[in-house]
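Progress against Task 2.4 (sequence-to-structure conversion) is shown through the following example record, which the project officer requested during the mid-term review.
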Amino acid sequence: MISYLQYCVPIDRVGPRVTLLPRASVVGYEVVDNGCLPDNDEISDIRIWTIYNRDGVPTSFAFPTLESRQLAVIACGVQGVGPAKAAGLVHAYGETQLLKLLQAGDPKELAKGVKGLSAKGAAEIISTMKPHLDKFGLCDIEDNPLKEIITKAQLALASIHGEVDVEVLVRLANEHEIEGSSHLVTLYNELLE
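Structure tokens generated for the chain above:
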């Protein structure tokens, strides 16, 4: 299953479906564009979420970041929210704004930006997704007294590993008496070993 593509060019577009061709490849990948892909420009990074219907037919959705893909996966776990609506929800607001709306807990405000989403449906999304907000660190890190240390550690780890799980960093920072960003980097690296 494909979960990440790098340096791709959209070569064919039919409705919301786009075929992406990675540089130096002869194989194209069809994804559903929920509005995050440029029309003709090269895409440096794209996250893919593939789900299978009851008949085993795959559909792949494109996301600009790992966090936005994770938000869509969680949203899809809400009763009455399918993959297309979950992807649309993330696209309508972007990950940071969606997290802020979920944290605020206002169903009417959340429902405004998503076609076909009622206040009742938005309330269900909020109640189901709100417990998962700490996984993203984007909400918790703002009020976290260790924000500066977490941010420095995240930057240092990104230069080493490329991708950093912010949720793990926030959890490690909250569970241990952190002496500085280098201490947090060490704990994260030990966890990976």
